[in-house]
Amino acid sequence: MRFRQFFLYAALLVSAPMSGAETEELYLSLDETISRARTSSVDAAVALDELKTSYWEYRSYRAELLPEVNFSATVPAYHRQYSPYMNESGSYSFVRNNYLQMNGEVSLSQNIWLTGGKIALNTSLDFFRQLEGDKYNRFMSIPVALTLTQPVFGVNGIKWDRRIEPVRYTEAKAAYLSASEDVAIKAIAYYFQLLMADENMTIASQNLENARKLYEVAKEKREMGRISGNDLLQMELNLLNAESELTDCESSRKSCMFQLRTLLDLGENTNIIPLTPSALPAADISYEDALQKALERNKLAASIRRRQLEADYEVAKAKGNLRQISLFAQIGYTGTDRRFGGAYSSLKDNQVVEIGFEIPILDWGRRRGKVKGAESNRKVMESRLRQERADFSQNLFILVERYRNQMRQLEISRRADEIAARRYAANVETFMIGKISTLDLNDSRVSKDEARREYINELYLFWNYYYQIRSLTLWDFSAGSGIDADFERDIRNR
Questions:
Q1: Are 150 and 126 in contact (CB under 8 A)?
Q2: What domains lie within the chain, and their CATH numbers?
């Protein structure tokens, strides 16, 4: 590792442009990169904002279940106008009104969860003052009134909200956790792209250095007549190709660096040095275990439940609209007088009972059709949900199998990388004493470079599959615990 970093840093120093700003080198492990991405990336901010939206929607739903206190008032209302007045003969005339009116009301209301109705306790005071003609004041008070509004056969929206909204919020929290894991997957991709670019830089730098040394050796051998002129030209061509390859690698690394810096919200003068992951999560994941965790924790499970409830709700609303009967009842006391105090003395009881209903006689099957349509939509939804679950299970199975296979592929590529590096080192020494040709040396160099690149790629695939499974199951198989978060803390502090 130190050997590779030496060549990388040397190449960076040679290729780095001279500027007034000092470059800051930042060594980052894969875990540190993931952690930074989860807190600093734009994707993480979007996921948090979506969670906040769902959180406040859930808070609003919870508030609907609690008592509500309201104060309303009109202070004042001034009227100066003509109004129609019917005489005893049945004819109309217009009279001029000029008056001042004020009113205020305080109410305490509570939704009734079980029935879907609403009960309210209120008190109010009205003031009326005539400004022309027979000037006078008038007060009317309702010291206390109890009001009940209750649908009899209609759908109980509050009951359905109590079933749907908690599931919707559970879905939102699971989506937030999955989005956080998706951010990690993106960070892994950018991290390994930069790591691969660094490896290519290291390889290119090593190859350039070796090409220079070999070219110098080849010139000496040519002077002694130990190699042909064609072999010397081949070594010179190798040197030129190595210089060109290093230039290409420098450009590719800059692009990869820009991507990762942007994701992590780092300054443009930060030079990220990714460290090759050595420790791997000790997680032997089975499909059965992953599927169980996913069905318990994944947002799909909550989404399926929510959509089932919403489809049932639409059916219930359609059936409730077949006939509508509502009850309104109010009991209380009222008083009126020219004086404020008199409006609260000599109170009289006040009762109102209203029963309203709407029953269709002839609607040409419109309401019944809406019921059938809602029931059909529910069946369609059930079929779609079954298909979604089947597709999800299939995709998870494939992903787990790829992960398990990748564990074996990674070990193979690691061993191949070690062997190819040792083979090339041995061939360089053999070439120095003239035992092998330049073609054989080039072949071993290409094999070494490809083996290293293949190892980095296999390492990336391993981490990518692992975090994809985490995203679907919301389970940390290495720690043996569920992926969770302090949602309210995140909402408050971020």
A1: no
A2: 2-57+162-306+382-493 (1.20.1600.10), 67-112+117-155+324-359 (no CATH)
